[in-house]
From TrEMBL:
Keyword vocabulary terms for this entry: DNA replication, DNA-directed RNA polymerase, Metal-binding, Nucleotidyltransferase, Primosome, Transcription, Transferase, Zinc, Zinc-finger
Record keyword Zinc-finger present: yes
Cellular component terms per the entry's GO annotation: cytoplasm; DNA-directed RNA polymerase complex; primosome complex
Keyword Disulfide bond part of the UniProt annotation: no
Domain Toprim: from-to ranges: 617-701
SUPFAM superfamilies: DNA primase core (SSF56731), Zinc beta-ribbon (SSF57783)
Domain of life, per lineage: Bacteria
Gene Ontology biological-process entries: DNA replication, synthesis of primer
Name the record gives this protein: Toprim domain-containing protein
Originating species: Fluviispira multicolorata
GO molecular function, one term: DNA binding
């Protein structure tokens, strides 16, 4: 039956798409819509917009409804997706009356019903034949009977296809058609099941008669090279015993997977029932997804043969990015009947102990990769083979954990050793207009030397880095105490406040007990006293040579600067039983102010919230650390906090660079109101900024509200914000006890001086009009203005008037370009690995040449002449680092020393990775906004960072990302480089045409013409594509 269109629309309209997607991806509300990272492609910033009934990705252009999303997520058909949604939300489906088209659908349905019936009939027929075979073999007393009775029956679901005549008679009688040229009679048949328990096909053994006639053959060899039959190839799962194993695996929370029937029988006879047989060359991602619905752990049991190693590697590569399934492995020696022989030395408990001592698959892969290699080559082999696979993991926290673990386990060091961020290739290059920046050897290609020139004060920078490094270590030290037994009660307190253990780790929260642990380390001479004293982490005690921790008996909250580096600590009082002492101690304390930290300059969580603020278009400002942590944990990531102050001028200058809408969400008590008033006096003079106030219930703070009422209620309050100036008027009116004279006096004192001094006359008139309409109905705007201008308040108070921050010119020099190909080449370099680059480009970068000298010669000339000096300088910076890290892309280099890069190089990386804090540093944060022009062509060649070029930059970045995801990045680089080279040749030919030709010039001209043809033929053998 065909679904009615009204029924389809009813499903789409009735299901809240935003709430539905929250089940599967992280969704963040933004006004009437929501945003998320697109589930259809890899991205670092949200471009996936979710509306009530449909979604749209502005990056990959994915678009659809809740039905389309379910089809993509589950791989279901449209009908199956509709039925699943109907069942999930209890929405009935309506069907049309039969039509001609319905009849076709019914024919299709009848086909599947018939196939299912045929499979069930075949299974019944095969089982009857098995009973006959067992009876016959019992009478003949053959070895095969013993093998079936003791080796197969009761352990594995199987049957028998029958003799050739029985087999043919059955299929001719039942009119079942099997599309194969093989004779499937006289074989064991193993049913293969879907995940729902229905049969989807059979696997057939070799003919048993061959083994009956040849007593020297091992019956186990029956199961070599099984033949497959299925009418449903798309839903066929190439695994045996899944129908039984899934039940036991669900209970045991673990599934064992073997690659052969003999290994399976060995384990089942030992009482291991949660085991299945994978009959492919790997456990692919489709099987992994099915397994992940049942169990959290899959353990592969493989021999140490070449096939076992290949199975292990392919499974590892296919499933590395799956987060919710842990792959483990057990290995045993490769010999005939190897697993059975291997396990004979164990009793039942011994087998269970062996199964419990499995390795993580990543450990086994790493060991196998580096096996038999000299110590000096192991790291290089790991970086060449394993590291590129790990870099495919999209969950950066998980990737960091794996790399940390592997480096400590196998190399005895931190993961930083994997990445060489500084280059040993020195490039001498100056950007002066007339200098000879590149020396080209006409015969041997080119050589580059990069000259690094840094004019910063090395000593000051070293001190700052040293302070930040010590803070990082201190944060880790206190975090370890929190997650240890000492921090048990502190953890319980945080959990009561709705903060999970995972969130404690992600925020790097810590605990400083009353035992002054950090001071003890100083007193025991394990660390020097200079740094902790300088940073205010410890204080001198009255006893000489003794110290105490500033944050003793406190939960530690790290404070990070606008660039994401640590600048200070905050401590929240946590005293278990000393209530009197607790009353005398402040609830929160911060590190002392220093060169690193000034609380009037820094907003808590600004670095973490920056991308969300730009994406959502507004910021929520709260009073305290815990308010901010609670909101962010609830998914409201565009939240920042002031630290014991109201908003300051410095705060406003930072915020107004990234948003023009600021929502104040302070506590609803008197102190919160006073902080809001002080914030208004600072923030209102910033022109073009919408200041709003969120109305929390009486006596509530954001942390308490979110824990009691939930995030949905909070989102409703976000949509009900009022202008801050309106709320301040309400408070002043309450304070005046509704007395007009007293209220006017308070308005003059606290507000109107700021209003009249505001640089925007329209804003002044709007506020005065509001006051007249709501409070002073007997006055006009002109009258109220005169009243204010004659007031002594206006003349007596110097007021700060500040325009909303505008980008300052001169902080970043323009970056002119000669053509679009140089920009595309730089984008591709950031995503590429050095060893995958075209051979001639690698040779040029390393000062080498191939047999065909023109390959490198033209490449070097093209890079030198077809790129602006700024672009070429950035190219040299990138390529020098790539040479030191040939198997890792620049974007995957976690420890790249950006301090050693030029401003343009840093900014380009920041744009590609959406590092908003670096874009903010150079006043280019607007490049991240989707509202900018979407023209795919380059508008201005004078400056790549001109906002007119934003559409072009976004378009090129999308093309490179998509080509990388589709495995076409190598072709993209080759195509871009060839365009650059051909453009150089064309320009050279045009230059030659202006000369009076002599023999020498004519020869050079003809050489270039031939080279152009040769180059197009030799280097255009890539798959050309257009992603437009």
């Amino acid at each position: 039956m065909r679904l009615r269109k009204q029924s389809i629309q009813n499903i789409i309209d009735s299901i809240n798409l935003q709430e539905h997607l929250k089940r599967y991806i992280e969704v963040k509300r933004s006004g009437s819509h929501a945003v998320a990272k697109c589930p259809f492609h890899q991205e670092s910033t949200p471009s996936f917009y979710i509306y009530p009934t449909n979604y749209h990705c502005f990056s990959c252009k994915a678009h659809g409804t809740v039905v389309d999303y379910e089809m993509h997520r589950t791989g279901a058909s449209f009908r199956e997706a509709m039925e699943n949604l109907s069942e999930m939300y209890q929405i009935p489906l309506e069907f049309e009356s039969p039509t001609e088209r319905d009849q076709k659908n019914q024919l299709s349905s009848a086909f599947f019903d018939k196939q299912n019936k045929n499979l069930n009939d075949m299974e019944g027929f095969f089982k009857e034949n098995l009973a006959k075979l067992i009876q016959k073999l019992d009478e003949e007393k053959t070895d095969l009977f013993s093998f079936i009775n003791n080796g197969l029956k009761g352990f594995l679901d199987f049957s028998y296809t029958g003799s050739e005549s029985e087999f043919q008679n059955f299929f001719s009688r039942s009119q079942i058609s099997i599309q194969t040229n093989l004779d499937l009679s006289e074989r064991f048949a193993f049913p293969v099941y879907k995940d729902n328990g229905k049969i989807t096909g059979f696997l057939f053994s070799n003919k048993i008669q061959v083994f009956i006639n040849n007593s020297s053959q091992n019956y186990i060899d029956l199961f070599e090279d099984l033949e497959t039959y299925t009418p449903f190839p798309k839903s066929f799962l190439p695994i045996l015993n899944w129908n039984t194993a899934r039940i036991h695996a669900t209970k045991a929370k673990e599934l064992f997977v073997v690659s052969s029937i003999p290994d399976f029988l060995t384990l089942v006879k030992k009482g291991i029932l949660n085991v299945t047989i994978c009959l492919q060359e790997k456990l692919d991602i489709n099987l992994a997804k099915i397994f992940s619905k049942r169990v959290p752990i899959v353990t592969l049991i493989l021999d140490d043969s070449q096939f076992g190693n290949s199975f292990l590697w392919k499974t590892f590569v296919d499933n590395i990015h799956i987060d919710d399934l842990l792959f483990q492995v057990l290995r045993f020696p490769k010999k005939p009947d190897s697993l059975e022989r291997f396990l004979t030395k164990f009793d039942t408990n011994g087998v269970l102990n062996w199964l419990a001592n499995s390795k993580q698959i990543i450990d086994e892969v790493t060991v196998k990769t580096m096996k038999d290699l000299p110590a000096s080559q192991k790291m290089e082999e790991f970086k060449k083979k394993v590291l590129p696979v790990l870099n495919k993991i999209e969950n950066y926290a998980r990737k960091d954990r794996l790399l940390d673990y592997l480096c400590k386990e196998h190399f005895g060091s931190a993961k930083d050793i994997l990445y060489q961020a500084t280059s040993s290739l020195h490039i001498e290059y100056t950007q002066k207009k007339n200098s000879n920046s590149i020396k080209i050897d006409e015969k041997k290609g080119s050589s580059y030397l990069l000259k690094a020139s840094h004019q910063s004060d090395i000593k000051d920078i070293s001190d700052i880095h040293g302070d930040k490094d010590f803070l990082n270590k201190t944060i880790l030290f206190y975090n370890r105490i929190l997650i240890s037994e000492i921090g048990k009660e502190a953890r319980f307190y945080l959990q009561e406040r709705g903060i999970s253990n995972e969130q404690m780790i992600s925020w790097n929260l810590g605990f400083s007990p009353g035992s002054n642990e950090l001071s003890r380390k100083v007193e025991l001479k394990r660390i020097e006293a200079e740094k902790p004293l300088k940073l205010g982490l410890i204080k001198n005690s009255k006893n000489i040579g003794k110290y105490f921790d500033l944050f003793h008996d406190r939960i530690i909250i790290p404070i990070y600067g606008n660039d994401g580096s640590p600048v200070a600590l905050a401590g929240r009082l946590f005293v278990k039983s000393q209530f009197k002492q607790a009353k005398e101690m402040p609830k929160y304390i911060n590190s002392p102010e220093s060169d690193l930290f000034a609380k009037s300059q820094i907003l808590f969580h600004f670095h973490g919230a920056l991308k969300s603020i730009i994406s959502y278009g507004y910021v929520i400002v709260v009073e305290g650390y815990m308010d901010c942590i609670s909101l962010v944990n609830a998914g409201i990531s565009n939240t920042v906090a002031v630290m014991g102050t109201a908003l300051t001028q410095a705060h406003m200058e930072v915020l107004t660079k990234v948003t023009k809408r600021i929502v104040i969400c302070f506590d609803s008590d008197k102190a919160g109101q006073n902080a809001a008033k002080r914030s208004f006096s600072v923030a209102f003079p910033f022109s073009g900024v919408d200041l709003e106030y969120m109305l929390l219930p009486e006596g509530k703070d954001p942390d308490e509200f979110i824990r009691k009422f939930g995030v949905e209620r909070f989102h409703k309050l976000t949509n009900q914000c009022v202008p801050l100036i309106h709320k301040i008027c309400d408070w002043l009116y309450e304070e005046s006890n509704a007395q007009p004279e007293r209220f006017l006096s308070l308005i003059k004192e606290h507000m109107l001086t700021l209003v009249i001094a505001h640089p925007n006359v329209q804003t002044q008139n709007e506020v005065l009009s509001f006051l007249c309409e709501r409070y002073f109905s007997n006055m006009t705007v002109v009258g109220l203005r005169k009243e204010m201008e004659s007031s002594s308040f206006f003349s007596s108070r110097p007021l700060f008037v500040k325009e909303a921050s505008a980008p300052q010119s001169g902080l970043l020099a323009d970056w002119p370009v000669l053509n679009v190909h140089e920009v595309k080449l730089l984008f591709t370099l950031l995503h590429s690995k050095f060893f995958e680059l075209p051979e001639r480009l690698k040779n040029v970068a390393q000062g080498q040449s191939s047999e065909e000298e023109w390959d490198e010669k033209i490449c070097a000339l093209a890079l030198n002449h077809q790129m602006s000096s700024e672009s070429f300088s950035v190219f040299l910076e990138f390529i020098s680092i790539m040479i030191e890290n040939p198997y890792v892309s620049l974007l995957d280099l976690e420890s790249i020393e950006k301090d050693g890069l030029s401003s343009h190089a840093k900014l380009l990386i920041a744009y590609v990775t959406s590092e908003a804090h670096i874009l903010l540093q150079y006043h280019k944060e607007e490049l991240l906004k989707e509202s900018l022009p979407v023209n795919a062509s380059m508008i201005s060649l004078k400056n790549i960072w001109d906002l007119k070029n934003s559409g072009f930059l976004r378009f090129q970045l999308r093309n490179v990302k998509l080509s990388s995801q589709r495995g076409g990045l190598t072709s993209f680089v080759a195509e871009t480089l060839l365009h650059l080279e051909l453009e150089y040749i064309d320009n050279a030919l045009r230059a030659f045409s202006s000369f009076h030709f002599d023999d020498e010039i004519d020869k050079q001209f003809q050489d270039l013409v031939r080279e152009r043809t040769r180059r197009r033929t030799k280097f255009s053998n890539f798959e050309s594509f257009s992603l437009q």
